[in-house]
Design brief:
This protein is of the alpha/beta class. The chain has two domains: about 180 residues, 3-Layer(aba) Sandwich (Rossmann fold); about 140 residues, N-(1-d-carboxylethyl)-l-norvaline Dehydrogenase, domain 2 (Orthogonal Bundle). Helices cover about 50% and strands about 15% of the residues. The protein has 14 helices and ten strands. The strands form two sheets. The chain has an eight-stranded mixed beta sheet, with helices on both faces. Strands 3-4 form a two-stranded antiparallel ribbon. Helix 4 links the parallel strand 7 and strand 8. The longest helix is centred in the middle third of the chain and has 23 residues. The termini are far apart. About 50% of the residues are buried.
Length: about 350
């Protein structure tokens, strides 16, 4: 590292968000590798110097190089994981043998694994433990971190002012990561609450689906404000039960990203809810979407997690029933409104 900034960074995942992060880093003059899982997509990125499928209109900086082979990341001291939660475990398992001791791996994924009900840093920790169990291999001493906050990929690519949080338990590494990602328009705050950042980032997508449903049904701004506020309460309850700092949920990864995702037209999760509220079927909505709406799969994960931890989450419950039990959207809203009255 030069003044704490790595000479080379790899971004794993060539969707819109991965491309935006890679472009930001390469735009700072950092040699940046952008890995995609489909060789034909990587070939197109290399040839066109633009991600026409997921982030059209933004030409790659000179320092950005698309790659299709994970072995190429072996010289990177920082790796940023930006793959969907349902494929995260397999990609990290394939990546791990190519990482050098002391590498920092940042999760920039806002989801929870369906089968294990784990966050992405928990998934990585488990994969590393299993890789060394029963063998003579020593721990690769991989440092785990989280990048989260209100950050639509398109606006980051446009260099519009954005603020995010990077979480890392190693305070020295956290400062280095802040310096690595910060630009004149991309402000980076620090945190050591990884679980709080991950839970808030994942759950806001579920609330955004609910907000979209309300908008699709034609409800007003009062409804949206109430939903955001009570959604924040649900997020905080679950996070605190898992050991998170409650203050994290009032920061950028919590309230900040929640407001953005529930109100922004660029939100894929709000779009899913909007179309559900308009009467469209989930299968058709997902078939028509080019990119992943993490909140759909995360709703299933968090539903299981809330039941396991015995945390009351009425908004989550109704979104789950709409997505996975084909419940009518209007009925779900009425069920929320007619719950027993209680103290806030």
């Amino acid at each position: 590292m030069n003044n704490g900034i790595p000479q080379q960074i790899a971004v794993i995942g060539a969707g819109s968000w991965g491309t935006a992060i890679a472009g930001l880093l390469a735009g700072k003059g950092i040699s940046t590798l952008l890995w995609g899982h489909r060789p034909e997509h990587v070939a197109a990125l290399t040839r066109e110097r633009e991600n026409k499928r997921y982030l059209p209109g933004f030409i790659f900086p000179e320092k950005l190089r698309p790659i299709a082979d994970l072995v190429d990341v072996c010289d990177c001291s920082v790796v940023c994981m930006v793959v969907p939660s349902h494929g995260y475990r397999q990609v990290f398992t394939d990546l791990l043998p190519h990482l050098q001791p002391g590498t920092t791996v940042i999760s920039a994924v806002k989801g929870i694994e369906n089968q294990s009900l784990m966050t992405m840093t928990q998934v990585m920790a488990q994969v590393m433990t299993e890789a060394t169990a029963g063998s003579n291999q020593q721990s690769r001493q991989i440092e785990l971190a989280v990048l989260s906050g209100p950050s639509f990929a398109k606006e980051v690519a446009l260099n519009l002012p954005t603020a995010v949080t990077i979480g890392c338990r190693n305070s020295e590494k956290a400062v280095q990561l802040q310096q690595t990602f910060v630009t004149d328009t991309f402000r980076v705050y620090g945190s050591n609450d990884l679980i709080g950042l991950e839970i808030s980032a994942a759950l806001k997508n579920i609330v955004a689906i609910a907000a979209g449903i309300c908008d699709g049904l034609g409800f007003g701004l009062n409804s949206r404000a109430a939903l955001i506020t009570r959604g924040l309460a649900e997020m905080t309850r679950l996070g605190v039960k898992m050991g998170a700092d409650p203050q994290t949920f009032f920061g950028l990864s919590g309230l900040g990203d929640l407001v953005l995702t529930c109100t922004g037209d660029l939100s894929r999760n709000r779009t899913v809810g909007l179309k559900l509220g308009q009467g469209k079927k989930l299968s058709q909505i997902l078939e028509d979407m080019e990119m992943v709406a993490e909140g759909v799969k995360t709703t299933r994960s968090v539903h299981g997690l809330a039941a396991k931890l015995e945390v009351e989450m009425p908004i989550l419950e109704q979104v789950y029933q709409i997505l996975y039990e084909d419940k009518d959207c209007s009925t779900a809203v009425m069920d929320l409104l007619t719950r027993d009255l209680k103290q806030e």
